[in-house]
């Protein structure tokens, strides 16, 4: 930012029998998502925002700001804003990473985007394709709690990352002046027929300063029982400021990023939408910082790491006045002064505690440097999301081995009913080959064995046996399944 420039699952039977049908299904989903992005500036199931009342930012002030949008000109809508927090990751809002067809929309990170949003060939300091979308494991799309996502870049960025992220839960203070930036819409209004009239997205990066952070008491009183607000992970700020297209963009208190726009109600907070517009909600960076550290600050392993990576942040909290939320269900950053790269994210690798097992999935693996994805990964994800896979996302039957006694346990056994999100999301991007499973580190006393039920001769047999085991509670079948799972974990092909 300012001052930094110098510095999968198995394919269903009908897909195997008719590849054309599978292609048609995928194409229809892509077209629907593309249409939604073109028409509304947001992927299916999420909403965005732009800075209201802002002015054009000075190019070079916010070099670590990232505009996430499709590289295809026909898809003119903005996805979200974000911040380059490491050479490999962009921090944004989780609802920006919700679309089932993200991998097919050609989402690109335009780092340092400032002028000429539509000129994709020259926009920003550098342009890097997004390769992965890692949402916080506790993200709730209904309440927008833990609304944070890390977008992994296909190649490292050369622009120095912005590391002055807020670690102090008491920041921003009540009434602190926040700075919001973004490419979102500048205004929403009502016409004579009370129909919403949306302004276009900004062509140049907008910045608005002096946006007041509101106290938790004011936020709670404003929303009441009709809306959800969790002060531990969310804050709110006065509107109008952020609007559609600003989601995920950084909000600054002084030089520190304290949050990013998450959700707002009432047409970007314009007073002609409601007499007393509700505040906009932002996600608190301090609530996510440990999770961000565990992924961003993790040293990338070369071959086979010996210990399970677990990040313990060592950086001290950096003071910052306040953070601001984003209007409309999409975050919008605000920035008055750009943070300087002082507090760098650093984490020491320590073994994870043994209490509750953490479900290891392909997201977890790739986030730590293991590029072991199956080439048909995207197809498997589509089929999983559409509910066309024989095994629900392949997830419940992925297997971990207890390193203390050699017992095999599935994710379904490890994740209780209260942790269904673990079961439903783990393996959504499955496709790690069985032969690579033995290279994975142990975690919480558990060693990863089978990651995906495909990729080898043994895995195809295991897949069939798993289906039978689900339908027939037979000890013989269970023994056969155990044998095949052990064969897979040994890398047999």
TrEMBL record:
CDD domains the record matches: Tryp_SPc (cd00190)
Gene3D superfamilies the record matches: Trypsin-like serine proteases
SMART domains, per database record: Tryp_SPc
Pro residues compositional bias, start-end: 316-332
Domain Peptidase S1 stretches: 51-297
Chain segments carrying region Disordered: 299-353
GO biological process: proteolysis
Key words, A-Z: Disulfide bond, Hydrolase, Protease, Serine protease
Low complexity composition-biased segments: 299-315, 333-351
Record has Nucleus as a keyword: no
GO molecular function: serine-type endopeptidase activity
Homology family: Belongs to the peptidase S1 family.
Name of the protein this chain belongs to: Mite allergen Der f 3
Organism for this UniProt entry: Porphyridium purpureum (Red alga)
Taxonomic placement: Eukaryota, Rhodophyta, Bangiophyceae, Porphyridiales, Porphyridiaceae
């Amino acid at each position: 930012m300012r001052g930094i420039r110098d510095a999968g699952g198995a394919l269903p039977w009908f897909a195997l029998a008719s590849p054309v049908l599978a292609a048609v299904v995928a194409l229809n989903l892509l077209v629907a998502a593309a249409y939604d992005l073109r028409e509304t500036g947001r992927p299916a199931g999420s909403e965005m925002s732009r800075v209201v009342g802002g002015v054009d930012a000075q190019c070079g002030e916010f070099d670590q700001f990232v505009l996430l949008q499709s590289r295809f000109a026909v898809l003119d809508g903005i996805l979200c804003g974000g911040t380059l927090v490491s050479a490999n990751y962009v921090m944004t809002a989780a609802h920006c990473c919700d679309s089932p067809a993200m991998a097919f929309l050609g989402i690109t990170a335009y780092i340092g985007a400032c002028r000429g949003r539509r000129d994709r060939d020259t926009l920003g300091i550098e342009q890097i394709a997004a390769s992965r979308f890692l949402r916080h494991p506790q993200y709730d799309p209904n309440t927008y709690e833990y609304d944070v996502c890390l977008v992994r870049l296909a190649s490292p960025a050369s622009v120095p990352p912005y590391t002055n992220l807020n670690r102090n839960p008491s920041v921003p203070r009540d009434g602190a002046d926040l700075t919001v930036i973004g490419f979102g819409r500048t205004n929403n209004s009502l016409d004579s027929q009370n129909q919403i009239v949306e302004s276009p997205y900004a062509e140049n990066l907008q910045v608005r300063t002096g946006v007041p952070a509101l106290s938790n008491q004011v936020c709670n009183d404003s929303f009441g029982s009709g809306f959800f607000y969790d002060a531990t992970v969310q804050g709110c700020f006065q509107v109008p400021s952020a609007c559609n297209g600003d989601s995920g963009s950084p909000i600054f208190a002084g030089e520190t990023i304290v949050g990013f726009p998450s959700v707002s109600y009432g047409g970007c907070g314009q007073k002609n939408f409601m007499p007393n517009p509700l505040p906009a909600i932002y996600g608190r960076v301090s609530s996510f910082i440990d999770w961000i550290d565990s992924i961003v600050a993790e040293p990338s392993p070369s071959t086979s790491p010996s210990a399970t990576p677990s990040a313990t942040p060592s950086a001290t909290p950096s003071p910052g006045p306040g953070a601001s939320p984003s209007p409309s269900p999409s975050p919008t950053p605000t920035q008055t002064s750009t943070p300087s790269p002082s507090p760098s994210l650093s984490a020491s690798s320590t073994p994870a505690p043994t209490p509750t097992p953490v479900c290891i999935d392909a997201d977890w693996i790739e986030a730590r440097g293991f590029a072991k994805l199956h080439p048909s990964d995207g197809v498997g994800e589509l089929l999983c999301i559409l509910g066309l896979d024989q095994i629900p996302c392949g997830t419940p039957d992925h297997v971990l081995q207890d390193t203390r006694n050699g017992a095999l346990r599935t994710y379904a056994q490890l994740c209780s009913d209260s942790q269904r999100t673990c079961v439903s999301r783990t393996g959504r991007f499955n496709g790690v080959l069985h032969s690579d499973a033995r290279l994975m580190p142990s975690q919480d006393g558990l060693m990863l064995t089978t990651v995906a039920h495909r990729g080898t001769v043994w895995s195809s047999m295991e897949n069939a046996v798993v289906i039978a085991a689900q339908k027939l509670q037979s000890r013989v079948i269970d023994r056969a399944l155990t044998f095949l799972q052990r064969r897979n974990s040994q890398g047999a092909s």
